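Reopening this ticket.

The earlier resolution said the output was attached, but the attachment link was broken on my side. Pasting everything inline this time so it's all in one place.
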Amino acid sequence: MNYLIFGDIHITEKDIKECESVLNEIITLKEKYKVNKIILTGDTFDKVNPTSIELDLFSDFIKKLNIPIIILVAQSHESITPTESILNHFGILKNNLKIVKEYIDENHLYVGHFTLQESKMHFGSKKSKKEFEKYKYVILGHQHTFEIIKPNIVHIGSIRYVDFAESQDKQKVVLLMENYKEKNEKCHFLSLNSPIPMKDVYLTKKTDKPLPQSSYAQSIEELKAILDKIDSNTKVRVIFDNFEGYKNFRPLYEIYKKKFKLFKDRKDFTMNYDLVASERKDISLKDSFNQFLKINKVNEDIKEILLKEIK
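Inline output:
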């Protein structure tokens, strides 16, 4: 018996093509390694009420799998209550598919969707690794960055780059358990090729220790040179530590927004919004308001409603 374990794909309509590519790669791995069972560790969708396009994509993926499937329900995104979730419908439609809060196979395998006190991103968790010492393998979702918590616990991570907090992740993986519960049982972490990578680029004068997956520029010209060399099939975020650098880069913003799959910025400085507006004489009311909403980190759903009011 061969098991394939993965999760946290966070299917969203805006990233539907990438999600489709990742799921197709999963199907290829399933065929290549003759997988007998698939376990999803949670956060299949990004919200409690997925769109029809999001549901169709996952439904098509499920149809192509003729093996038992276990899907964990994550309260963080896809559950209205501990018992009410859109995922329950998939359990009704397919006989060999089960929806569970956690997966336990005796003392051999435990799969859950939460962090531990020892997790890199523990989010204030009250659970400890000591509670899971009896299991040979503990595979956890929720944390998007891959992490091995010795001796027997692994955060498998997300199977695509969902947030720029993951920009330091070198790769996205799935877990293949070959010859499950047999004497020659082996575990392999298989790297995925289809996730679109994320990259942080800093326009900074700081001398802090550089991050391994990031690039640093001291001037706008250096920043342009770095951005021009990055593959267009990348999600890029530029981080500014001073207003002058941000102001000088703004005329180039739309150029790079068109180049990359996703292009964002982060402002690591205190900004006077009135000054920004005064520096951009050509900015429209809608663009100006949109910028205000971004700076103040307004919820995306609320932002969409507000912007509809501005013609």
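Reporter confirms the inline version is readable. Residues 198-308 form one domain. The chain has two domains: 3-191, 198-308.
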